[in-house]
## 1
Amino acid sequence: MAERADAVQLERLTRYLVWLEGSRNGLTVEELRKRDETSDKTVRRVLDTMQDCGWVECTARRTEHNRKYWSIKKTPQIEFSHSELLSLYLGQQMMQPLAGTPLYVGVHSLLNKVRASQPKAIEELSRALLRYFHVTAFGQSDYSEKTQLISDLFDAAQNHRVLTMTYQKADAAEPKQYLIHPYAIFYHSGSMYLVALSVEADDIRHFKIDRMLTATETGRSFQMPENWNLQDYRHKSFGAFSPTGETHVVRIRFTDRAAKHVRESKWHHSQKTTDHADGSLTLQITVENLEEIQAWVLSFGPWAKVLAPQVLIENVRRAAMATAAQYSDQP
């Protein structure tokens, strides 16, 4: 009976909202009573509920002997400064790589609302930014077809819901199903990754969202590990690969040519740099995965040399020799 009463109340609230939104000058209790074919007491109870929620307001008209009219409460007009508009518009441009995700949809929706209230200012900013500012999509993933999937992943992570996921590994011939506990999502180097516990492996893994085919709720929930948080967890990695649990202190010497580039950016929260008289630089970081560091060092060619640990020195040396072998038959 209680559920039925709640359903009736919700239907009535919906009707009143539609009627009041469609009314130009508001409606009186008597007018609502006639439309709803109910009592004054019921109408007032519904209006009180709506007023408590901040949806409606009541005003008295002196020209009609203070007769009271109910109407939808007007949202206060928000004015934006040009610097605030510039930041908002620039933020949307910067989030272009996330087009199709709930994050981008939210910013785009907000900007549309601002555009409706201040069309001239937005138009001027659009022309200026399109002429002088551009965000490239070099190496960026396209999530335009995965809007619902990403929304479902966010929802499952927030509500601690167990998922069955179909995933296509880059080096696998066929997709595989995983039972996972989704913890969080992070964005790195143009792509989004899900941090989740693989129930089968009993280990936390990173799953690239580009390779996810389906994600379905099982109807079960899970308990998050105590004191786990994404920021502390991500500090153990260099890039998108998951931490291995083995700590490595990495030291790399960059020649003066590469050192200028390295100094310009923050590469890891643990980084320490030492400048040398010849213009070179030594970078030290502490991580729990070496795979992406190997690729990063190799991208500098002869202008970077690993000093420690020994396992990374050997891995880089083998990869460099294999790369050189690819060109051994060149004149």
Note: The chain has a mean pLDDT of 87.
## 2
Amino acid sequence: MRLLLTVLLAAVLVPVLVAGPAVAESGKDCKVDPCKTKCCCKCKKTDQQITNFVHDVTIPWPFRKHVSDADGDGVTDNIDKCPNTPKGARVDAVGCPMDADGDGVYDGIDQCPDTPKDAKVDEKGCSGDSDGDGVADGIDRCPNTPKGVKVDRYGCTEMETEFLDTGVIRTSEIRFETGKVDIKPESYPIVDQVGTTLAQWPELNIEIGGHTDNVGTDENNQKLSEKRAQAVMGYLVTKHPDIAKGQFTTKGYGESTPITTNDTPEGRAQNRRVEFTILNKEVLKRESPLKR
């Protein structure tokens, strides 16, 4: 008889508790609970409270035990394997928060749910781009790119990529007045680009090597290459105060190490070059602004 009464009581109480008194009042005062539980008009009871109430009235007193949800994630404590889930985080069937884009900010809290892998994010899960080159911080291997410079998918210029991969920057774009050591003004942007790159590596020991073509005597080309290397170093330490003069040594190679033929104007132009060579390449292996 007691069991029959219990079943009948549950059958009557559950619909009333779920629907609430507003059903009889055409639903005018019915509002959905902020936690997105079922509507319980006026009494404003949550699903958990309803469950506990039904449990109390249908289970004999010695056997009552409420099934609670301490962190409010919708998974009851008896099966919740992650009992301290932050408010607002989406969870799986066992109450553990999910992170679809793997940025360390849980789904539901993450306001930028499609963050690229390895990007640095804030507490909202959104990434920044400090130098404005279109590559997110954390992915950007060259985070101080000058504005407007074209970069690859890692945020680096072609020059910086060569530098990272080989430890050498080689350029024939630094041009000098014929037979002189004066850097032509149109070459300043190239030297400045090199300076911006090297300024991020104060630990590096760098040799600035000057090279010429084979026009003229060996002796003159040797002296010319030495003075041109010194001119480049002087420009860098003057225009880029973050660069320490003690980082650099200069050396003239004259015409002794061509990289292509000297038999054509194009070949001679490539051989008239400046090379920035890292002498302590082991530094490149460390974690740094340029190599992440």
Note: The two ends are 74 Å apart (CA to CA).
## 3
Amino acid sequence: MSLKQIILDVSELEAPYPLIEASHAIKDLKDDEELIFIHRMFPHKLKAVLEKFECKSEILKDEENYFEIKITRIL
């Protein structure tokens, strides 16, 4: 099954806006979608949001000042 990709690039936003934007996107994420979250660092508070909305994450890229994280619902 191919999931619909939603890209959320918050790399230009200042705290706390990346986490706020991610929270809204994760809350609205459907079972057939995956969120590609792009940021300049790994937001550690994101783990609590993922748990709250029963999602899992996979780091796709981990480079200096660039993180790309795939987020999907736990089915």
Note: The chain has one domain: 4-73.
## 4
Amino acid sequence: MTNSKISLHTRIDAARTILPAELQHPAVLSLLVLSLAEDLFPDADLSSLEDDLTDGDITSTATIAPESCLMAYIRSKAQGVVAGIPVARAVFSLVDPDIYFNPLAGDGDVVKPGTMLAELSGSGRALLVGERTALNFLCRMSGIASLARQFVDAIAGTGAVLLDTRKTAPGLRYLDKYAVLCGGGQNHRVGLFDMLLIKDNHITGAGGITPAVARAREMYGDRYQVEVEVKNLAELEEALSLGVDRIMLDNMDLETMRIAVKIDNHRVPLEASGNVSLANIRAIAETGVDFISSGTLTHSAPTLDISMKIG
């Protein structure tokens, strides 16, 4: 039985120390708590988490003795790249700080079917309460990491860097982007607050690339990097004349990208974006662009099949 005397605030503080620095964010902790609440209580009432969480699992309450102490094992059922082991551990810690969680694989590890990822022991009811929430995160994050690794491998040796986008599941931004890192990719901006990315709608609203960049510089100076999206070579020339920090080549065909790289001549880093897939990313990288961003990494990655078994 979980220790109901331990406050939710104390559990959250303990869970934070389990997470890597990239995930020690209030939004991540809130997400983990909310995910447990929606699984345990019909109104997802967070205040109910101050009580014994196992009371919310009516099946385990009915079938597992309160004093039962069990062992559990988390295994991969497919080949891929693991991401989210500390997140799964934090989930179980939120349920019951007394659960023993021994990681047997680390984030970024390549695993095969049958690879043991962790062994756990503790309250049988608590293990079953945390199981699905922990696996939901672990399977999704590992799926993203696995797909990212495939993209990274596809462009190996070209010098191009794989980037993610903001096309993440709402509320899962930090976890999704962390998973891309585990797969060997890099993060683009986290949100709307940490980089100026002037895209087509901003350009249209501002009346052109030049006035959009001028207004951005006037308001923020050099506080933020400025990236501009261009859709043709004329816009590329205009952006190059403005001294921006990066230029995004939006949905350009391969030949146009090759010409863009020659025009740029290493003056400004170029990022290719739009309809990037495993089938074409190598060809895109070979045009000479510096970065390639793909929303597929986070909006279309299949989950990695991972399970937990008592025994």
Note: The mean pLDDT is 95.
